[in-house]
Amino acid sequence: MREPSDEDLMSAVAAGDAAAFRVLCGRYALRAVGFARRFVGDGAEAEDIAQEALLRVWRAAPRWRPDAAFGTWFYRITINLCLNHRRRAPFLDLEAAAAHADPAPDALARIERQEEDRALLAAVAALPERQRVAILLTYWEGFSNAHAAEILGTSVSGVETLLVRARRSLRRTLAPQD
Predict the structure, then answer these.
(1) Within a 13 Å sphere around the CA of 158, how many CA atoms are in the beta-carbon half?
(2) How far apart are CA 11 and CA 20, in angstroms?
(3) Over 70: is that where the pLDDT of 95 sits?
(4) Separation between Cα atoms, residue 107 and residue 128, nearest integer Å
(5) For the chain, how many helices (H) and strands (E)?
(6) What is the mean pLDDT of the chain?
(7) Closest alpha carbon to 27 in 75, 61, 65
(8) Which of 34, 3, 39, 32 is nearest to 20 (CA)?
(9) CA dist., res. 168 & res. 57, Å (int)
(10) How many Å apart are CA 88 and CA 53, to the nearest integer?
(11) Cα 98 from chain centroid?
């Protein structure tokens, strides 16, 4: 007596035949694990991929159409799962995850930073006009002192003098009050 083909078994699985599914699992589970190990490396991930592939076969069985050989379809599922696994960021074990704190500032730090920014903007706004323009051109706009001098219609040393005075004034204004 001949053994049923994969396609015959899949037709039975589509009808809910668990025994036929066990036969398919017997034929393909080790192949899928072996393929996944060669693709993603040794470890539980390969076994998880094989199990997920078989689970997808079971779930998709009612919609399966024998347009291609079952083995072709099954390997396509396995390959896609392997590709998805490689694209995902690797999981860290719990101890390693605890060692990496979130680099984003917490809410209190963000509020403090916003208050500092507001104080700085207010202090810059209070500077004499030419000092304020020199600070804004060099620090906010990123212009060189030479370019800022050209814009202001003054010399480079004139811009440097304006910057020294502006920084001195900002330090006094922003210094912590005792």
Answers:
(1) 12
(2) 9
(3) no
(4) 34
(5) 9, 0
(6) 87
(7) 75
(8) 3
(9) 73
(10) 17
(11) 18
φ/ψ of residue 120, rounded to 5: -65, -45
Rounded CA-CA distance 142/162 in Å is 16
> How confident is the model over 32-59, as pLDDT tens digits?
999 998 888 877 888 999 999 999 999 9
User: Are 131 and 165 spatial neighbours (Cβ–Cβ below 8 Å)?
Assistant: yes
What is the architecture, at CATH level 2, of domain 107-174? Orthogonal Bundle (1.10)
Nearest-angstrom CA–CA distance, 19 and 6: 13
Architecture of domain 6-92: Orthogonal Bundle (1.10)
CA 132-137-138 angle, 5° bins: 105
Cβ neighbours of residue 108 closer than 8 Å, sequence gap 6 or more: none
Tell me where in the chain the CATH 1.10.10.10 domain(s) lie: 107-174
